Amino acid sequence: MEKQHKTKAIYHLFGTTIFISLAVASFAFCVICELKKSKKKELRIDGELCYLPQSQAFGYGIAALMCSSIAQIAGTGLFIYCRRSTDFKSSKTSFASILLLLSWASFFIMIILTGTATSMNRRQAVGEGWVDGVCYLVKNGVYIGSGALVLIAMSSTLMSCYVMINKSRAVHAQVK
């Protein structure tokens, strides 16, 4: 019985470490994107045509999207593992599910923001631009906002797992 408990603890620790590492990496990539995004001085205008070279933020944005996607899937897997290992089925687990829903909502908004901003940092050719021949620049704070959403998603996922584990301990304490 104790060996099974140690195995569960190792899985929880391993899953949590991977989840937090990927989420922090995604946040760091978002901060780097904010620093490396295309600047107004890089914009070249020739009459009504514009040109904007690809910035380094494009690659870092892709990395942020990949890390946050893998982290979100790993975090949800961790939540499912916590929920299965608790042996506690009740309506009290709805709070943990609401936290997980908040995590996914934050994740989807982050994906939309980061994906759009990252595509704006790709090369905008003369006459093509980003949309309809017009060049666009990413506004200040978009990537920082995406990074904050990554942290919100990570926190709410971890809190949902914590709620599940604590509810399980409370039930096991009452049984003993």
How would you describe the overall organization of this protein?
The chain contains four helices and two strands. The chain is mainly alpha-helical. β1 and β2 (49-51) form a beta hairpin. α1 packs antiparallel against α4, α2 runs antiparallel to α3 and α2 (57-86) runs parallel beside α4. The longest helix is centred in the first third of the chain and has 35 residues, at 2-36. 32% of the residues are buried.
Strand order, main sheet: write it out.
1-2
What characterizes the major β-sheet?
Answer: 2 strands, antiparallel
N→C terminal distance = 15 Å
Residue share in helix: over 70%
**Overall mean pLDDT:** 84
Radius of gyration using CA atoms only: 21 Å
The secondary structure category is: mainly alpha
Series of H and E elements: HEEHHH
The outline comes out as elongated
- The overall strand count is 2
Number of helices: 4
Uncertain stretches of 5 or more adjacent residues:
none
The proportion of residues in beta strands is under 5%
